[in-house]
Amino acid sequence: MSSIFKRIRSYNKLFGINRLGLRALFNQRVSIHETAVIGPDIMCYPNGRIQIGMAVKLFGRSILVGDDIPESFLEIGEGTKINYLFYVNYSGGCRIGKNCAVATGVSIITSSLDYEDAQLFSSAPNVNSSVIIEDNVWIGTGVTILPGVRIASGIIVGANSLVNQNLMSAGIYAGIPAIKIKDL
Fold first, then answer.
1. Continuous segment of H or E residues that includes residue 14
2. Kind and range of the H or E element at 63?
3. Nearby residues of 82 by Cβ (< 8 Å), 6 or more positions away
4. pLDDT, position 75
5. What is the pTM of this model?
6. pLDDT tens, 150-163?
7. Taking Cα atoms as reference points, which of 125, 161, 126, 118 lies closest to residue 147?
8. Is residue 136 helix, strand or coil?
9. pLDDT (0 to 100) of residue 31
10. Domain coordinates in residue numbering, the chain
């Protein structure tokens, strides 16, 4: 058996990888800690740098999309749990801290179109802006996080909220747009 097939079998055994894809498994810019658990049916377009930390759990049916540009990166800190149906466009860069909990159906967007100067939608240039989620953050089901947002440590974001600005003081945030509803 060739060494590449042995390597695929060892990744499947270690991480439970079903459809992560050969490009992601063997791309030098992808780093998955040996204790990370990656669920089945992950669609990964790893054109940027991906780093998945120790004891991370990334459950299945998620989509990870990046661009082949220097600012395109996805970093997931140790002990973070990300549930099913997670979508991240990390073209502008996305860092999720340590010991975070990300519920089902969360979307993180780091790229948008600059439509103000474009006369036609198709000619609008991409604008990338990173999303930073610090340590010990809990993100509820169905939350959407838009480009350029920073979420400070210890924050809880309620289900189906839209985060379009920085959340910097500890508390519970919810709504469209997300506002502070309770201090912690």
1. helix 3-15
2. strand 63-65
3. 56, 57, 58, 59, 62, 76, 96, 102, 106
4. 96
5. 0.84
6. 999 999 999 999 99
7. 126
8. coil
9. 83
10. 9-115+122-183
